[in-house]
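Hi support team,

I'm filing this because I wasn't sure whether my run with magnesium ion finished correctly. The job status page said complete, but I'd like someone to confirm that the output block is well-formed before I use it downstream. Pasting the exact inputs I used:
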Amino acid sequence: MPIRQLSQSLINKIAAGEVIERPASVVKELMENAVDAGATRIDVSVTGGGGELVRVVDNGCGIPPEELPLAVASHATSKIAEADDLFRVGTLGFRGEALASVAEVSRLILRSRTADGPGGAEIEVVGGKASDVAPCGCPVGTSVEVHNLFFNTPVRRKFLRTTQTEFGHVSEAFTRIALGVPHVHFTLRHNNRQVFDLAASDGWLERIAESFGRELAEHLIPVESIDGDVCLSGYVANPTHSRSNNRMQYVFLNGRHIRDRALQHALGEAYRGLLTTGRYPVAFLRLQMPSEAVDVNVHPTKLEVRFVDSGRLYSQLLSTLRSKFLTTDLTVRVESPGDDPTGGHDRVRTAELRQELVDWAKGKVASWDAPTRAGSEPAFRAACGLGQSVQSRESLQLSRVDRGGTGRESDEVQAHSTEPPTTAAPAEQPPTANALAARSAPALQIHNRYLVTETEEGVTIIDQHALHERILYEHLRERVMSGALETQSLLVPEPVDLSAPEAAAALEHREVLAQLGMRIEPFGGNTVLVAGYPAMLANINPAAVLHELLERLLSGGRRLDRGDLLDQLLHAIACQAAIKAGDRLSPEEIDTLLKQRHLIDDPHHCPHGRPTALIFTREELDRQFKRV
Ligand code: ADP
Ligand code: MG
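And here is everything the job wrote out:
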């Protein structure tokens, strides 16, 4: 084929392919323009997940009628004029191609009026073809409507997912921009239902709370530091509020939401030792720096940027968080009914709670012997988490209280049948020999996480969490398949605040969740009611269970079929209900767990595919000890 100059329309379509991936991209571009126009109020409303209509109305500076054709032309912008400007970009946009790209693949109507203009004017562009500018009545500011996105690019249209999923992306895009500029009033509506109404606010925490719920906001720790020209500020979550992916790490550079691998890594490093593997910290961070210190022109949607001194920034973030954690009490708060919500830091109350827990644990420990006789039905139930998970959960809580504020994962102090704790020893105290290993007839528990057993072949080392998780998973799957899953109904349904994408996912997957015993009802806004949940998780807060399940749903990434989805959720429930690394087990519990080993299909791998057991053959041991 000979070389040809491409038509402007084709160039725009190619550009649209880069920046406009789905309705959420349109929402992002239009909202950025409204922010750049200095609006103090921005109303976003979408229909059908945004594929039918996206409308963004602002009260910003407006566009004079004669400039409307330029606004929708490609490579036309009011934000930069010369090459040097690229190195001092103070606005969210600057490429001058968003409106042209969107207009190429939709029907776009732009109406605008400036404060000193005689009246409003509008222009309509259908698949890249612009109408003449016509006068129209409208308030000062700009409104952009985008109808039937991708109507002329059927391939793109085919890639759009369900309305709820697309709306989940829209709402994520909305949240990212709204978090960047808390002084602007934003609203979001979907199919005429109000989803967000975020009042203008001076404090960032208020905006975070309105976007992600008060519960999370209450567990945020403020951080702040200045290094030369760079000001870092924001909030990071208490390690109790970690997630299974890094999507709740929001970083804003001069008001622009960005993703940066190095900074994500620094966050992970700062939390090292505070979170178990596979868990990610939640963070909301703002960076202010001179625009010359960063190149924003490296990514089509400007999601990634290049810092002049990224090493220094990495160190700043890491050291700010580390020194903050050293001076922060990261103890898990134990809240009992009527407890003062700030009571977590009240020493007297904490001591009382500890004593209560110790007394309670003594009683529990005494009663463990009876129901866990190996081979009996209660023993089966216990190993499958029906009943026993309650105990292991509660003993886990005990271990958390016993941490004494170090925030370290503590293996040492645990309730256990042969030596009930009489006082809560500080975690720093060296563990006694007895606390390091519990022995049952066939196995030895070491470091409160591995079971060592002698077998005919040699020695097997079992990961207690992985094995229990596998057993629970098999058991659950069987129950779900036969429709015999126990559900715990709540007398008073519990309202749970979700983020918008979570709420969308919850409602979209209501049926699958119900199959697992998680019954939810819409409650308006981003709140849902939990009316019932899996009995196996009886002692875990329903909100925590729901958050975990929704995270799995959202991180599914590609479109999972119903079977895969169910499987993912079974894994999540099994993981939550299973005993944890760090849980001290009684000899009876060890026995029961090992007995179940033979009941499951694939005892060598936990549902995540990690091995549940390592085998050392006698020959290998002999070889290692140079006996042969
Ligand atoms: P960019 O934002 O990169 O400049 P766009 O294609 O998004 O490019 O917008 C082109 C131009 O149209 C902007 O530079 C701005 O002058 C004008 N414009 C777009 N949206 C608005 C708005 N909501 N209010 C005022 N001006 C706008
Ligand atoms: Mg723009």
